[in-house]
Specification:
Layout (H helix, E strand, L loop, with lengths): L1 H55 L1 H5 L3 H28 L33 H33 L9 H9 L6 E2 L5 E9 L7 E9 L3 H7 L1 H43 L4
Antiparallel strand pairs: 1-2, 2-3
């Protein structure tokens, strides 16, 4: 029986080595992906802003002076540049997952004396879950940054008079976070057309429905529009598929070892009356 448990432990150790290897591959793949995504975001933000300024609200854009137009364009580029930096930083500021060797260790003090029993720790952790949580954290941060950039871009456009001045910031925030629904109209990539209720300017304070077009950066549309970003996403999906297989094998081996240990413990404590 001990031999069987040792064999399973060896299998688990091999799987943990594979997890550590794929963790490094994930980190490298995300580094490349985030650089490509930052470039794709910059391009799509500029294209969406161009369409909004020239096709949706051309008269408002023409009312700007040349210097105002240049300042608007520069600030849009600054937003995109900051987004590129934030995307790359997101890989490092997130709490990193910790891969351990999976063996139980005896923790001792500097004098070599054993620590109290309550301070003993088991180093084995569900490593595939740690890696999945790390990946999920990065993906969540990407979406958060896209929503934030959409909001900042809309506030900038509002400041320059492209979007209605009286429009509450809350509406712009809704636009940046909105998902497709019945009151939203599909339009050009990374733009959102939404019907909102506004008050008329006269003293009657009557409300009217107004169609608003705002920046709404979508990860799927950015990836679809950029072959390089899409290729990097495919690489991440390939690694995710590999991790899923390793995770299944890992959980299977952990259960197999638990069963063997339970059988061994049963026999060790069993005695005939």
């Amino acid at each position: 029986m001990a031999g069987s448990i040792n064999r399973v432990d060896q299998d688990i150790a091999a799987l943990e080595e594979a997890i550590a290897k794929i963790a490094q591959e994930f980190h490298q793949a995300y580094e490349v992906y985030l650089v490509a995504l930052g470039q794709g975001v910059r391009q799509q933000l500029i294209l969406a802003s161009y369409h909004l300024c020239t096709q949706t609200y051309p008269q408002a854009f023409l009312e700007l002076s040349v210097s105002q137009r240049q300042k608007l364009q520069q600030e849009l580029r600054n937003l995109a540049r900051q987004m590129q930096t934030d995307l790359c930083d997101s890989l490092h500021i997130l709490v990193s997952f910790e891969l351990v060797d999976g063996e139980e260790e005896d923790f001792t003090s500097e004098q070599g004396e054993a620590q109290p029993e309550e301070n003993l720790q088991v180093s084995r952790t569900p490593q595939p879950l740690d890696l999945l949580a790390w990946q999920e954290g990065i993906e969540t941060e990407i979406v958060r940054l896209l929503k934030l950039l959409s909001k900042d871009a809309n506030l900038l456009l509002q400041r320059f008079g492209l979007l209605p001045k009286k429009l509450p910031e809350a509406i712009l925030e809704v636009a940046s976070k909105a998902q497709a629904s019945s009151d939203m109209v599909a339009g050009p990539a990374n733009l959102l057309q939404i019907m909102i209720e506004t008050e008329d300017d006269d003293e009657s304070q009557t409300s009217m429905m107004t169609k608003l077009t705002a920046i709404h950066l979508r990860l799927g549309e950015i990836e679809f529009a950029d072959a390089n970003v899409m290729a990097r996403r495919h690489q991440l999906r390939h690694l995710s598929g590999q991790l899923s297989g390793i995770r299944r094998d890992y959980q299977k081996k952990l259960r197999e070892r638990a069963i063997l240990q339970a059988e061994d413990a049963w026999r060790a404590s069993w005695y005939e009356d």
